[in-house]
Design goal:
single chain, alpha/beta, four-stranded mixed beta sheet, three-stranded mixed beta sheet, 26% helix, binds iron/sulfur cluster
């Protein structure tokens, strides 16, 4: 297996310009970059990540620390919204077993009561059903949802 690059960023929680009604994305988080699934149809394939996405995987090692600060500030201002995990990688890459960034991020998201939208091809998501159930029960929906998802 190729070793991922470890990188540090200045921000991790991205606010979208507007929520797409299908994608439900008020915010996005990408704790890894590039993706070992390497789907032929993926929009990131052939971009700066190259044709073989597995060769360009990075781990955002300060992502959890940044997320804690950003969620704290957003929750203080009551700026609740759906967080898409993830929009430009899969949150459950094989290396998630080792780094557990997605699991740590979900714990923070549950703590600050944000709703979440997980997009994955991996059954590793089953590992985090405990936190996802908690989020399902306690998340505060964006004000324009009137407290309901339907
Ligand atoms: S799993 Fe998603 S992010 Fe990864 S290559 Fe496939 S479509 Fe792209």
């Amino acid at each position: 297996m190729l070793m991922p690059r470890e990188i540090e960023l200045k921000t991790i929680l991205n606010k979208t310009k507007r929520r797409d009604p299908w994608f439900l994305d008020d915010y996005t988080i990408n704790l890894y970059s590039s993706c070992s699934f390497n789907c032929l149809y993926c929009y990131i394939r052939g971009s700066k990540y190259g044709e073989n996405l597995e060769e360009s995987i990075s781990v955002k090692v300060n992502g959890i620390e940044l997320l804690e600060k950003q969620l704290y500030l957003r929750s203080k201002k009551q700026q609740y919204g759906f967080i898409v995990v993830s929009s430009a990688t899969d949150p459950y890459l094989k290396i998630e077993e080792q780094y557990q960034l997605t699991r740590q991020a979900l714990k923070l998201i549950a703590h600050y009561k944000f709703p979440v939208h997980i997009i994955t091809k991996s059954d590793l998501v089953i590992r985090d059903f405990d936190i996802l159930h908690e989020i399902d029960k306690t998340a505060i929906l964006p004000s324009d949802f009137g407290g309901k998802l339907q």
